[in-house]
Design goal:
By secondary structure, the protein is mainly alpha-helical. 41% of the residues lie in helices and 8% in strands. It has helices at 5-20, 55-60, 70-73, 77-86, 127-140, 142-179, 191-201, 235-238, 252-256, and strands at 38-42, 46-50, 105-106, 109-110, 113-116, 119-122. The longest helix has 38 residues, at 142-179.
Length: 261
């Protein structure tokens, strides 16, 4: 089928425009391309698509934020209940489970008895029967499914925030190390080359000024994530201080329970 040159040119320009708008933001979900970017603001005005500090670079400066891997916990109701029964990652979040029927846990752990869908279980006599009932609740009951989804969303968002904190900390740290006379290793490129260029451009700016998040500014080509994965403070105030980000309203109840402390 013959196409006029003008039509072909328009199609090429349209394709180029679409590609230019593709989202390159890092999701920190283990499936990011190697060239994904961590976005942040400088001077609360310039949106920068920062290169990512490599694991070798982070290791060189001992930058590591420990996170709970939600992949096993949240893969099934079995994994979720197993963590409730034997793990510690859900110690605080569990206080918000089964609240419509009086809750399954208190500050001391599993309650002596719980009620699920109108049926009461004696957990003091048989804890296993209570956990078995919970497994069915999280697997089949709409309310239980929603509770599990909310907790898992919290875990997943926390991982994103932790990885973003590492990247913010890296930019702050590289700037400080360089200004104190330290040679930056090649393992920190291409981020270091990019950061050094911005440090030259903003020569009067303190190092934490290169560690801000997007402050919820829209990223071209990327779907709006609201507050789910944005840092609201600089690395200087985040390092060593928990609670450095904001999560969506669907998991606000778990935040109010101190889940991130």
């Amino acid at each position: 089928l013959f196409k006029a040159p003008g039509i072909v040119l328009c199609q090429a320009l349209l394709l180029s425009s679409v590609r230019a708008q593709e989202c390159d933001r890092c999701n920190f979900d283990g499936e990011d391309p190697s060239d994904c970017k961590d976005y942040g603001l400088i001077d609360n005005s310039e949106l920068v698509a920062w290169h990512i500090a490599s694991e070798d670079c982070l290791d060189t400066f001992n930058i590591k934020v420990t996170s709970t891997d939600p992949s096993l916990i949240c893969s099934s109701a079995n994994g979720f209940v197993s963590e409730l029964q034997n793990g510690s990652a859900l110690t605080t979040a569990r206080l918000g489970l089964g609240v419509s029927e009086g809750g399954f846990f208190d500050d001391n752990g599993l309650k002596d008895q719980i009620t699920i869908n109108g049926e009461t279980y004696n957990c003091e006599e048989s804890a296993s029967s209570c956990y078995s009932a919970m497994r069915t609740y999280f697997q089949s009951d709409p309310e239980g499914q929603q509770e599990m989804d909310d907790v898992c969303s919290t875990l997943e968002n926390k991982v994103v925030l932790d990885r973003q904190l590492e990247q913010s900390t890296a930019r702050n740290r590289l700037c400080q190390e360089f200004r104190s006379g330290t040679t930056i290793p090649d393992s920190c490129n291409p981020l270091w080359d990019q950061l050094q260029g911005k440090m030259d451009e903003y020569s009067d700016k303190d190092c934490p000024g290169f560690a801000f998040g997007t402050q919820n500014m829209a990223i071209p080509g990327c779907p709006d994530q609201g507050n789910n994965s944005d840092r609201s403070t600089s690395a200087s105030s985040m390092i060593g201080i928990p609670g450095y980000g904001l999560l969506g309203s669907t998991v606000f109840a778990f935040m109010s329970l101190g889940y991130f402390n």
